[in-house]
Amino acid sequence: MFKMLVLQQLYNISDEELEYQVNDRLSFMIFLGLGLAEPVPDATTVWFFRQQLKQHGLIEELFEQLI
To answer: For the whole model, what pTM was predicted?
Structure first.
């Protein structure tokens, strides 16, 4: 799930657009470690995951570790 947030930040796309792009792009699926038959988390799931990270004060720390 965190890798999805990374893609979202890199491409500056909304949760809905992220869901669409992961379903559409093989390169995104490979980056996320998803197979063609595996379900992609929907936009609501991405939003909820990001909110949980924010609530626990982790999102900034995780992104800082990438830099």
So the answer is: 0.89
